Amino acid sequence: MKPLTYIDLFAGAGGLSEGFINEGFHPIAHVEMDEAACYTLKTRIAYHHLKSIGKKDVYTDYLKGIITRQELYDLIPKELMESVINLPIGADSNPKIHKTIDKLLNKRKVDLIIGGPPCQAYSLVGRARSEDNMKGDSRNYLYVQYAKYLEKYSPKMFVFENVIGLKSAGKGIYLENMKKLFLKKGYLFQLFTVSANDFGVLQNRRRVIIIGWKKRLKVNVPNLEDIKIKHEFKVGDLFKDLPSINAGSGKDKFQNYSGPTNDYLKNNFIRNGIDILTQHVARPHTDQDKKIYEIAVKKWNQNQQRLDYNDLPDTLKTHNNRSSFIDRFKVVAPDLEYSQTVVAHISKDGHYYIHPDITQNRSITVREAARLQSFPDDYYFEGVKEGANRTASFKQIGNAVPPLMANLIAKKMKELLWQ
User: Fold this and answer.
1) How many CB atoms neighbour CB 230 within 10 A?
2) Which terminus of the chain, N or C, has fewer Cβ atoms within 10 Å?
3) In whole angstroms, what separates CA 167 from the centre of its chain?
């Protein structure tokens, strides 16, 4: 059978797409406005292409720093590199995006559209911080653009991912309008509220997944809320084989692992055969932050208690806000079944993601954050310029869909599309 095809809109770093590729789907195009994320997508496309032709060693050379990013890209078919479209989705750019996609399709059909518009406008935290509750934010209406792509490419089905706040944004009016608009374009949909930890991801990440289908089709959409993967792993299993490093130390390309893999890393393809560790570099921290980190880790490791900012000595308090975000310093607890949600704010500081090993006394690295999101270790997060860019990498990871979660959704979609 021919592989099922899809277009990924608002693709980000490709976490959702990774799950679909792993299930045998063929990406026609990824559309993303963030330039750094587009380089990440290109690098991942290079990986999948080289893997498919038995030349993973070339990708390994890139991770080792033997060849440059451009030298890697030069070895990949031009049309694959062109399938990453670095433009914002909207009226001004759509004609150019459509022209590129039409060329890449070469008269093929699109089976599926996946993706989710930027979530800040629907985010409960984002709305709480906004003076007008984000009422004037244009991102509230990006679902209209999504509908335009459904109309143009007429896929059998679609997968729309977003934050829980989508259900309550505008007192539910955006979701209701979305439902009406998609129906007008010929699609019915069903909304599911899911948690990434139910999909085997060691992270508490609640999201909305909307599965849509052409109303003329008879589909029995499985209840994604019924997925409950059982396991006995803990968050600490994600970090056991990683070298111990202190604040401001580590290597981007490349390090050796400090120990063997374990069943969680192996079974979920985080350690998947390319045993080259990259992007395991710790942020530098001030002496004051490190003192706070020590207090937070001791509190958790000794009593399983979270640090309340107000309980710090006065000499360590620098924030005027003492009534909200009092858990702004938080340990990634190794003995829990899942961690706190990894969000894009991690690109600004690591206080909410303190490493549980007090001897390392630091926040987590890009690689550790990627593992919390279930990205495989050979997934390299790019900056605009070649070389490590911690801020860009953290932002991409925090905004991503966990690939492990995406993989299970892709399995369900494949079953539906092959009915």
Assistant:
1) 6
2) N
3) 21
Number of H helices, E strands in the chain: 14, 9
Note whether residue 310 is domain-resident. Answer: no
Nearby residues of 102 by Cβ (< 8 Å), 6 or more positions away: none
Report helix, strand or coil for 409: helix
Low-confidence residues of the chain, pLDDT below 50? Answer: 123-139
User: Token pair for residue 262?
Assistant: 């374990």
For tokens 């994600």, name the residue: 238
- Residue 163 region by backbone torsions, left for phi larger than 0, else alpha for psi between -120 and 50, else beta: beta
**Looking at residue 131, what is its pLDDT?**
47
Residue 301: inside a domain: no
Domain extent, residue 98, equals: 5-219+401-417
In a domain, 68, yes or no: yes
What percent of the chain is helix, strand and coil (3-state, nearest 5)?
A: 40, 15, 45
Instruction: State whether residue 4 is helix, strand or coil.
Output: coil
pLDDT at site 119: 58
Between strands 84-85 and 26-31, the pairing is parallel
Domain count, the chain: 1
Alpha-carbon gap, residue 269 to 289, rounded angstroms: 34
CATH number for the domain harbouring residue 95? 3.40.50.150
Site of tokens 């150019």? 96
Asked, for residue 167, whether it belongs to a domain, the answer is: yes
Q: Measuring CA to CA, which residue among 119, 118, 101 is closest to residue 110?
A: 101
Contact predicate 13/40, CB 8 Å: yes
> pLDDT of 154-181, one tens digit each?
999 999 999 999 998 878 888 999 999 9
In this structure, what are the phi and psi dihedrals at residue 35, rounded to the nearest 5 degrees? -65, -45
Q: What is the Cα–Cα distance from 157 to 211, expressed in whole angstroms?
A: 7
The yes-or-no answer on residue 38 being catalytic is: no
